[in-house]
Specification:
Layout (H helix, E strand, L loop, with lengths): L2 E3 L6 H5 L2 H8 L11 E3 L5 E2 L49 E3 L2 E3 L2 H21 L12 E6 L1 H18 L4 E6 L5 H6 L5 E4 L1 E3 L4 E9 L1 E6 L8 H5 L3 E4 L12 E4 L2 E4 L5 H10 L8 E3 L5 H7 L3 E5 H10 L2 E4 L8 E8 L6 H24 L5
Parallel strand pairs: 1-2, 6-7, 6-8, 12-15, 12-16
Antiparallel strand pairs: 2-3, 4-5, 8-18, 9-14, 10-18, 11-16, 11-17, 13-14
Helix pairs in contact: 4-10, 9-10
Length: 373
Amino acid sequence: MRTCTLRIPSDAARLCSHMEAFKCLSGQNKSACPSFPAIWFNGPIVQTAGPQPPSRFRGGHGGAERPPGQSPAVHEPIGGQPRPRPPPRPARRRPISENTQGLKPTARALELAPEIVAALAIVRTAVERQEFDPATSDRTFTLAASDALSILTVQNLLREFGRSAPGVSLVVKPGTRVDLGEMIDLGRIDVALGSFSEWPEHMRFDPMAAYRDVLISPIGSTPIERSDQLHSRRLAVVSVGGEEEGAIGGFIYERGLGRRTEMYDKAALERAFRNCGLIPRPLLAIPHALLLPELVVEANLTAIIPHPLGAHFCRTHPVRLDKLPYPCASQQIGMIWHQRSDKDEGLIWFRSILRSLVSRLVSDGDQLGGAKS
């Protein structure tokens, strides 16, 4: 069975010339033309009796018919031969790139992530209840600290947790990581301990204690009283990043946060040696302060370290604590956190414990040894 499409001209004069063809096709003169079951116009529909061919408006036999007055589709079969369909339109690309690991956020998404996370955290803080009971809480706190500050604080923190908050746990991350400011912004670090020169407006800084540098030497070694004597020793210092790493004045700046990377007063040391006509050149610079006591004893070194850490090493290793033979500036130990946690009762409790521990540690160090002003 076939379907024929005929456009009727709008001109009445021309319409008359087609009347005979119309009569033939519509069945009034069936002997003069082929048999078409139906005629579809680009206007009114004229149908004849008989079975209808399937179309996209008829789901086969007994399907729904084409709405009256609608033109035939471009894919309507004419003469029994369907026309080919055009190729599918390509899907619109989404703003996500793809690599061998799968989908990953775009650079713009990564740029917006800290602000979005911070905004959501502020909303969560405003909506959620911030009640905290140390005795029943199972919360996990995240602390960023150097290995030197970790050895001075973590043991005492765990002791305090066991006494007043048995369900609370602690995660310690390195405070020397280059993305420290970003991790605080994203809420992945609750509190960061260290020495900081500046911080952005949305962060809080609490200066807890001040300290100066001291010397540790093997027990039985000659005391050092002058800078030239120190220059003749095998000198070691702690540094996690100097000028070659982008440090300025012993501090590296990232996202508005300046953290100390030279764990000694480098300017004071260089000034003291130059005053004696000597070139400052430490024998050893290492990033991990916990290696120093073993090296001091085994390699007969003299090391410059913060005096709270020196006091701790005097209790655990056969080393002696001495004052520096030159004046040096004091450094502050403080903690940094994001302002959104100002009213978080759990973090208020956590920060109060840290403040008490650090203040007590620095006080103990002063009793065991200090440095010249």
